[in-house]
């Protein structure tokens, strides 16, 4: 669903090799997993189910293999999304995916949905993907929905857009970003390089 090749090219730029796969057996053999994505949550989860990828992805995310979700790939890790209806996610991280709603909030006047462009992310916890990066840093975002984890301690990076939201998740070998590291210049490439080195 979207930006597969741009993520692959960014990994190649930092000296890593990455294959774009769509078969469950390929996911099972991979030493690391990246699930990028742009587009609608419902279409993406239906696509994963149709290809038989849900079970292998859940197993991979719960294993000791490094796993990175990007944008929609972050949102798919959660229990449920309310994008154009209600859709069950992979259920790896307890929580919901919600639409930005600034109605009745004068302090958020002028903010548009989608949240698009550069915004600061401040680190709130330690994470191996942040090695060599100071806080805060600017990253590139394009999204109308954000994640709301039940356990807020899984968020290692927060962004403010009409209020704080989890911009980066870190739990064991599971990492995910709402921003696009592959479109975030040097700081984004550093995150991908750190992931490749795990």
Could you give a short description of this structure?
It is built from six helices and eleven strands. With 198 residues, it is an alpha/beta fold.
CATH class: Alpha Beta
Roughly how many Å apart are the termini? 26 Å
Largest sheet, strands/sense/barrel: 7 strands, mixed
The chain-level mean pLDDT equals 95
Strand content: 25-35%
How many E strands? 11
What is the number of helical segments per DSSP (H or I, 4+ residues)? 6
Judging by the overall fold, what is the CATH architecture? 3-Layer(aba) Sandwich
Quickly count the domains: 1
Helix percentage range: 25-40%
Structural class: alpha/beta
Q: Using only CA atoms, what is the Rg?
A: 16 Å
CATH evolutionary superfamily: Class I glutamine amidotransferase (GATase) domain
What characteristic shape results from the CA principal axes? globular
CATH topology (level 3) name: Rossmann fold
What would you note in describing this structure?
The chain has 198 residues and is an alpha/beta fold. Helix content is 26%, strand content 30%. The chain has 6 helices and 11 strands. It has helices at 4-13, 24-29, 41-50, 54-61, 72-75, 185-197, and strands at 33-35, 67-70, 78-81, 87-88, 93-99, 115-123, 137-143, 145-149, 155-160, 164-171, 174-177. The strands form 2 sheets. Strands 1-2-11-10-9-6-7 form a 7-stranded mixed sheet. A hairpin with a 2-residue loop joins strand 10 (164-171) and strand 11. The two termini are 26 Å apart. The mean pLDDT is 95.
């Amino acid at each position: 669903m979207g930006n597969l090749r741009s993520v692959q090219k960014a990994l190649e730029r930092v000296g890593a090799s990455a294959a774009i796969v769509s078969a469950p057996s390929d996911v099972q053999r991979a030493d690391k997993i990246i699930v990028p994505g742009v587009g609608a949550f419902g279409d993406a989860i239906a696509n994963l189910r149709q290809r038989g990828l849900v079970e292998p992805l859940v197993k991979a995310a719960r294993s000791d293999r490094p796993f990175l979700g990007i944008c929609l790939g972050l949102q798919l890790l959660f229990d449920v999304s309310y994008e154009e209806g209600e859709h069950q996610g992979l259920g790896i991280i307890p929580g919901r995916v919600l639409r930005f709603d600034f109605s009745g909030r004068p302090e958020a006047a002028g903010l548009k949905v989608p949240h698009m462009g550069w915004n600061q992310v401040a680190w709130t916890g330690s994470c191996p993907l942040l090695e060599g990066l100071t806080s805060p840093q600017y990253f590139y975002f394009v999204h109308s929905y954000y994640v709301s984890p039940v356990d807020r301690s899984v968020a290692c990076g927060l962004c403010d857009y009409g209020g704080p939201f989890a911009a980066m998740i870190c739990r064991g070998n599971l990492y995910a970003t709402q921003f696009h590291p592959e479109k975030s210049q040097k700081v984004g490439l550093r995150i991908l390089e750190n992931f490749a080195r795990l």
